[in-house]
Structures are given as C-alpha cells and as structure tokens.
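Check out a protein:
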Amino acid sequence: MWLDLSTPISDGMAYWPDNAPVHIKKTLSIQRGDAANVTEMSLSVHTATHVDAALHFLDDGADVAALDLNTLIGPAHVVAIQDPHFITREELEGLLLQPGERLLFKTRNSDQEWAQAPFNPDFVRVRADAAEWLREQGVVCVGVDYLSVGPADTHNILLKAGISIIEGLALQHVEPGLYDMICLPLKIIGADGAPARVIARKVNE
C-alpha cells in the first residue's frame, strides 16, 4: 500500500517567516455563474512538502528543473531521531549505510500536525556535523519533517555535495523502516525549489 508523505497545501497554513504566505482562492466559481471552477494560488516554492535545489543557497547552483530525479526515487529509510533538538552526527553514526542511501528523519516535529499551527522556530533540525557525516557516507537524499533541514551551513554542506533535500514531510503516521519512495517536485524553470508529492510503500524486511 502506498502512503502519502505529502503535507497538504492549504490557505493560511504555516510558512517560513520571511517567505510569502499561502493564499488559495477561487477566481472563477460555478456557484457564482461561471462556466468552471478555477483556483488561484500564491505561495513560496518552499511551502509544505517541497524539494530544495542547489540554487536555493548556491548562487551558481542548478535550478529545480535540473534536479536528478534518481536521487528522489528509490529505497529510503525512515529513521527515528531521539534527540529533542538536533539531528546529530553522534546519533547517526549508529546507522549502517551504503553510498547512494536516502534517509527521511522522523523527529518530535512529527508529534503534531504542524502545518496548521503557527510557525515554530524550535523545530528539530540537522546540525552541521550530521550534514558532514551524511556527505561522507555518500547519502544522495535527506528528508525532514519540518519546513527546513536547518541553517545555512547545513544547507550548504548538503547542496554542495549534490544531496537532494526534501523538507516538510508528513511523517506523523509513518513507522521507521525501509520504504520505496517516489518524490516528484514540480518542474519550474529558474526556481530554487518546488512543492512535491511524495509517496512511499513499506518494504518487507
């Protein structure tokens, strides 16, 4: 059975403070006498579940349309993180990884339906030492369960290494383990990120 790991996009939902807020409205409506319903959206590309492109933090980086989709499709481990503040190198060093792995981190962020709550600056994030370890292990994709993987240094370490970043995953009802994952960001020319639909299916281990 395929599980939807995508956070729904809705009017007024949580957004990064210096990004554009989310507005969704009908510009045409059958109930108002129009021939069809048509919806308009205004939002940052870093809304809900989305993928960061290298261009997000690297001025000469590739845009989201140039992302290697092979990094976003394939086996992925959902990893439970115990530290209440950070994803750290110390906690990750217990993982046995091969180059090419995809990791989705489930933290205390997933203890609530965060998308409908006010922005929480106290979210669990990937610390720089963990990002360096992920780079050393040859990981190709990292996913997190809040709007950001972490501060600028964390982004830079991952993106310079060619590691794809998925942010805003809905992992509230997902158990740790191995999954087949498909993550498809919108193909937006020149954009530094894009909303994505992410689905996953548990692998019998």
